[in-house]
Write a structure and sequence with these properties.
The protein is built from 4 helices and 4 strands; from the N terminus they run αββββααα. With 123 residues, it is mainly alpha-helical. It has a two-stranded antiparallel ribbon. Strands 3-4 form a two-stranded antiparallel sheet.
Length: 123
């Protein structure tokens, strides 16, 4: 890549040429490069939303575990697992990262089960 194509000379410094398209600033001059930058930004925002949703669902599940509400835990756990699996399928999360998140949630749920068994003894 030739830097001189992306820059212009001012008094003492080299300044990048900047384009603003739809509120986004670009350093690229080539049309396909500008499009790739736009696509990357769109994907970044989509990935950010997915990650945020996964974090929110994990927090809801952990709050339900701390409260000891097994019905709430099971429903939130099911939704969290589904969202984690979708994020892995769409490439937002690495498969190992998704597996680790699910494993940690399962471990927290496992800690809740002995408490539930002591409260309700079996017949």
């Amino acid at each position: 890549m030739l830097i001189k194509h992306l820059c212009y000379q001012t008094s003492a410094t080299l300044m990048p040429t900047v384009r603003v398209v739809a509120g986004v600033t670009f350093v690229a001059n080539i049309k396909s490069a500008i499009k790739r930058i736009q696509i990357a930004e769109r994907n970044r925002l989509r990935n950010k939303a997915y990650k945020s949703t996964v974090k929110t669902l994990i927090k809801k599940c952990l709050v339900a575990v701390q409260a000891g509400d097994t019905i709430q835990v099971e429903s939130t756990l099911r939704v969290a697992y589904s969202k984690i699996d979708k994020a892995v399928k769409r490439g937002v999360l690495h498969p190992n990262n998704g597996a680790r998140k699910k494993s940690r949630l399962a471990r927290k749920l496992k800690q809740l089960e002995p408490q539930a068994q002591t409260v309700a003894p079996s017949a």
